[in-house]
Amino acid sequence: MLGSESACWICGGPDLAPVKSSNFGSKLTSGDFAITDSRYGVTADIFRCGKCHFLQCSNHRDVLGYYEELADTSYEEGRAQRSLQQRKLLEVISPNGQNRRLLDIGAGSGMLVEQALKLGYRAEGVEPSGWLQQCAQKLGLQVHRGIFPNPATPGPYEIVTLVDVIEHVPNPVELLEEIGKILTEDGVVLIVTPDAGSLIARMLGWRWWHYRLAHIGYFNRNNLTMAIKNAGLEPVRWGRPSWYFQADYLVDRVLTYLPQFLRWKQPDWLKKFTIPLNLGDSFFVLCKPQKSA
């Protein structure tokens, strides 16, 4: 395991202790960052902050280039199920968009943007992957290529969504600060991220499915609250989102925990079924700008 001079990305504390060594063992490619990657427990070096207990991959910060080159055809195969998930998340904010402006950061192929438009939002997104952004464009969805902040998305926005994104960046507090700058006074931010403090995460240890190369920061409720408040925002509602999976995809992921000789090929009829799943190991938090004193 390499040493690290980095401070904690959340609280700035210098007391970072190594807790897990990298085990990817080869040169990285964009495929290692696929949304559907199933190599659970394969990570870069992980360090724990002695003050706020945030887990970060201090030596694995420069990952943007991999996302820019990322293509993930398996991700699009589950579009119907993933779109249902996005719609349910939007309903946390409101069942009716009421023509409000929405920006989805890390928009992928535009699934949340598409569902937001159906609910009556004026929605757009920003996405670093050229392949995913082109998928969105082919569907007529306004997803801009790049990262946030982005000159194409100056705001203001009444809603900003950050779904399974904040665990991928080395500057979570700064990202939230920039989001605050484009929010209207009564705007809201919806953050969704894995919960490293959840029961299932503690039970599975380093075999937890959210320990993966694409994730470089791991939050619990306390340090995510700290990040939100340090960025000038205030959490107003917490919850546990459900996910929706094609049955064959879910069974295949479960089988990764079994020895190779006990795994089997999934029958095609499983593709016809959608399974809702909530293991309580992710949370959503709805945030608003802090009130001025």
Would you mind describing this structure in some detail?
The protein has 293 residues and is of the alpha/beta class. It has one domain: Rossmann fold. It is built from 9 helices and 13 strands. The strands form 3 sheets. A 7-stranded mixed beta sheet has the order 6-5-4-7-8-13-10, sandwiched between helices. A 4-stranded antiparallel beta sheet has the order 1-2-3-9, with no helix packed on it. β4 (101-105), α4 and β5 form a beta-alpha-beta unit. The longest helix is centred in the N-terminal third of the chain and has 15 residues, at 79-93. The termini are far apart. The mean pLDDT is 92.
Question: Main attributes?
Answer:
7-stranded mixed sheet; 9 helices; 4-stranded antiparallel sheet; 13 strands; 293 residues; Rossmann fold
Please state how the strands of the largest beta sheet are arranged side by side: 6-5-4-7-8-13-10
Our Rg estimate from Cα atoms comes to: 19 Å
End-to-end gap: 46 Å
Provide the low-confidence segments as ranges: none
